[in-house]
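Researcher: I'm preparing a figure for a lab meeting and need a structural model of a single chain. I don't have an experimental structure, so a prediction will have to do for now. The sequence is pasted below. Please return the structure as tokens so I can convert it later.
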Amino acid sequence: MTLINNTKWVAVSQFSRVGLQLLGMLFLARLLGPADYGVMAMAMIVVNLANLLRDLGTSAAVVQRDELDENAKATVFWLNFGVGLTLSALVAGLATLIGYIFVSPNLPKVLWLLALGFPITASSAVHQALLERQSQFKLLARVEILSSGTGLSVAILLAHFGFGVFCLPAQILTAAALSSTQLWILSRWRPVRKFNVESFKSLFSYSGNLTAFNLINYFARNADSIVVGKLLGAVQLGVYSQAYRVMLFPLQNMTFVATRALFPLLSRHQNEPLVLRNLYLKTVMMVVTITGPLMCGIWVLRSEFVHIVFGAKWSAVVPVLAWLAPVGFIQSVVSTTGTVFMATGNTKSLMKLGLIATVLQVGGFIIGAFWDVNHVAAMYAVANMINFFVAMTATMKHLGSGISYLLAKISRPLAICAVMMVCMTVLRIKLIDTGMSALPLAILVSAVGAAVYGLMGFGWIKKTVFTFAEKRAQVE
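Model: Understood. Here is the structure written out token by token.
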């Protein structure tokens, strides 16, 4: 029952955080403006890079290793904590220069606040990895929900009292501090004062390539913010970042749940390729079954969605979301591939795939920036379509199969999604002609779309869920 429990509690945690994110959008988007979100998006470029360097892939190594001794755990802890302190000092010291580069007077102050979080999160990274290794996802779910909820409450309160963009770093800091405190309390492990060079070398053989992949992936995911923020300004970046957040929903939720819950189990079966392939294919089918109709629905109702969630002043998000909605679906599938390479210890191949994706995506960003943020999103979509075939071909080959087999498997849910989109689009046009307002229109069109998808795919969806549960039971 390990995988079932893992998936259940990771899902509880993640979908609770989704609900909190939606609440944040509903409240904060009305209290803050595009420029505020633009400044925060600039700051997160630096923070996300620092977070990658803080971990150095060691947390995944702690989960993946067959055997783990006290020397290795202590080594990882002191490495992470030392790097966290160093990064905090570097970001704080370079904040003024970064603000000058992006021509943003508030950016240095935001970075100074966010820099405080690096040693806090670094101090509990091993504790979290050990709990994941032990499949203690119920405890982790409690930690994450409480931390995220408290952080959001602090942000809304500060925004209400006029703190502007500074409520956003306060949200992150609050959540980080509360999370780290709980992890220290819940984990019985305490670090000894020892740094073992041999343990570091052994861990780095795995985490080195993973860190390289994470850095490459970071650049691919943040190059759009760098390009848009520098060339098109904070307002357009704020518009783009809101559409990007919507795009990330399936990636941060369905795919995150699947990969986080599966990684410890797949690592324990890393020498059984047939088990890995079958379970991976069932996981992809589940991801497609859920994210396909979700992103199709957002694409059809993008105008109503933006009006309801963000408000009328965010209308510029609508055309950007038209391109990023399909990207969200593509990335929800492609992002599952990393778990396969990580679980089998083949992080070198993962790094190479990350490099290819970066070249494609960064090239698209640069080309699109010659026009406007809508063209940036369009070229991003094209790059992701190409990368889908590259990444999935390599992954299926690694699992002893081919991409044609995968495409045949997912063709049916994609066809059902296409029919659902046509029905939703026709109904939406007719309801707009009647003068129906955004909220009831969105509810009615969504209900019809869900009914069409459910009726056309009922037998297939039921079979997919059943075989997925059956496969999990076989693996366990």
